[in-house]
Amino acid sequence: MSLSKFKTIFLAIFISGLTISIILNPKESLDASTRGLEIWWEVVFPSLLPFFIVSELLIGFGVVKFLGVLLEPLMRPIFRVPGVGGFVWAMGMASGNPAGAKLTARLRQENHLTSIQAERLVSFTSSSNPLFIFGAVAVGFFNNPALGILLASAHYLGNLCVGITMRFYGGSNETLHDSKKVTFLSSIMTAFKELHTTRIQEGRPLGKMLGDAVISSIQTLLMIGGFIILFSVFNKILSIIHVTEMIAFIISGILALFHLATELSVPLITGIFEITLGNQLVSETNVKLVDKVMIASFILAFGGLSIQAQVASILADTDIRFKPFFFARILQGVYSSFIAYLLFNPLYVNIQAYNTTDLPVMLMLHSPEWARNYWESVIQIGPLITLSSLMLYVVLYGRRNVFSKPL
């Protein structure tokens, strides 16, 4: 039997089994679906929508090209990607998954990147946003704001390490930089020239550009919401039919090999499928804190198969391959876990040994109420933002695709 036929049979059996499991467990499936919808409704949609819209406008007005010229001397020698990658990296860290993939795909579609450069770029611009790390994980799950600095440091340093590693991906035939010496003044002038040229070439008026940005962003977020709900149900079904426990038995041997608590095997498997629930289960496990921090760092870096499915869907519209991204997620998980272990004493244990009143606000153990308050405010106003945005989307989509057509 050929590999293609085997894959067809496997997928058919898998999807059929998942469907039957959902039918046999309607209450559990509905609860999991509702939970996934709440995550998207309250947090994901309102936190990602502004970044998606603004990034579309920045690309359209040429600001990204402007930043690309300025960041070229930094991004190309270190990561072997054009300067526009700096914008994607910054937006990816600020807004979280899957913003890095969406922006990379957009820049590839406009030929600002080659396919190899895009594969390098998307590999290290996928990250969790600071709000999720500080507000949800450190404060919400672990109830320990001091862990936010440690988790964020391990996470973003892991991103950096992946970027440096992936610079060797795709061969070494590219020119790393122009041999012509470029001064800072000439770089500024070239950047402004690119900015003006891009704005002139953009034929859409401001209203049309803004409407397109809103429609494109909301369509992407609707797709993301579908994946979140699907994988929430999928994760619950695997737990009900005890597949999670069977896989966890194998993973526990790997954890024991690295002298980590085997009790973390189930939370790790859960986190591999869904990042939020996985970190919550890690925080509730009664093991050493350093072990929990390492596993939480791995889950944050890997991102969960739910997020990876979202990225795969976004990249499917381009010639950017998904395999390098998947490899990079495993690599970042290893990097972040190791960095979390190295920084556990200097960024957590040693900080608590000092008088917290002598520390900056960001490093105080009990002071960062901003994280909890900001997270709670997002959850409170998130549904209102989501509902308002969806209503705006219906109006814009209707005007362009329904009422504009002759009857």
From TrEMBL:
Domain Nucleoside transporter/FeoB GTPase Gate: residue ranges: 43-140, 221-315
Superkingdom of origin: Bacteria
Matching InterPro entries: Gate_dom (IPR011642), Spore_IM_YlbJ (IPR014226)
Keyword tags: Membrane, Transmembrane, Transmembrane helix
Transmembrane segments: 7-24, 44-71, 131-157, 213-234, 246-273, 293-314, 326-344, 378-398
Pfam families: Gate
This protein's name: Sporulation integral membrane protein YlbJ
Organism: Metabacillus litoralis
Phylogenetic classification of the source organism: Bacteria, Bacillati, Bacillota, Bacilli, Bacillales
